[in-house]
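DATA SHEET
Item: assembly model
Revision: 1
Owner: S.N.
Input lines:
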Amino acid sequence: MINLNYPHFPFTREVLIEKVQEKISDKRFQHVLRVEKKALELAEKYQLDFEKVSIAALVHDYAKEVSDEEFQQIIKEKHLDQDLLKWSNAIWHGVVGQYVIEKELGISDKEILQAVNHHTTGSKNMSDLDKVIYVADFIEDGRDFPGVNEARESANRSLDEGVLFETKHTLLYLINKQSPIHPKTLETYNYYVANKRDI
Amino acid sequence: MINLNYPHFPFTREVLIEKVQEKISDKRFQHVLRVEKKALELAEKYQLDFEKVSIAALVHDYAKEVSDEEFQQIIKEKHLDQDLLKWSNAIWHGVVGQYVIEKELGISDKEILQAVNHHTTGSKNMSDLDKVIYVADFIEDGRDFPGVNEARESANRSLDEGVLFETKHTLLYLINKQSPIHPKTLETYNYYVANKRDI
């Protein structure tokens, strides 16, 4: 069991976990706990703040089971980019989910909300916290897809390698399924490809 | 040998061919002739105007051996989207190449220039002429890559199926090579994926 305090937040890890557990299915909740475990491993390796990593990991899928109608309403009410209306839960639970998290959990920390925002599409402007959540979501111990070991090795070499591997893998998966691809996913790919000599 | 007149243009096919042959390597010229042959087959099948198909096919790679410096100069002089400067010959020879063709060959027909423009990235707004050139370039008789037969069968079912197959294949190829992908290629993919129920 992880023993972790949140000295800078007005709630404990136990209370946050309870709220997350109430909001999503047990299967998803188990995934969330595994993402937190992997994210903390990466945080230790790459020397990130455990507190924010834990919180961001625990809430990253908090809005995954929010209804399409609620997301559409938030997009309209908050005057977000109306192009978002063309997308679906796979994009909304991160990009729009951050507003659900802010409202229902009272988390207003911009770095945590950005990690939630970026965790599905990636971004060309990812912080290390964003990268840790993006990558941990992909390689947590329950993941079992062809290439997962290579993904884990990439993330062990560097966060940027982990991000590039995951972004490529996601693009290939979506194209083979003939699913739509969000322009930000391509932007992430192009950014990390252009900078791969530095990786 | 193809016997084709250009009643609406102030030059003959023979003169156009001579000019193209002077501008590019023999290997590329042979590819261009095969693209024209395939494009005319598709034009017959899908009932397009032979004249424009022939001209667009013959000029589609006219600017392929133009120097990077010349492309960069045109982008600046014509005040094209300056984002283009970040790309390379693979994009420029179509998107910017149309201006070289207009200037050097005196071809101002907007439909032909658009087919040249769209032949590398595709577009969500492709005319049938654009599609024929895009697809013929991919499946001409000299092409020999894994999947080329499937690509030819797609194009035989419909131009839209041909475009979707080619766009998917191009994306997969670029991702596996870790090469940058132009946003218009993704836009083409997303458009044809969204409309695939009609294909």
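QC remark: Chain B has a mean pLDDT of 96.
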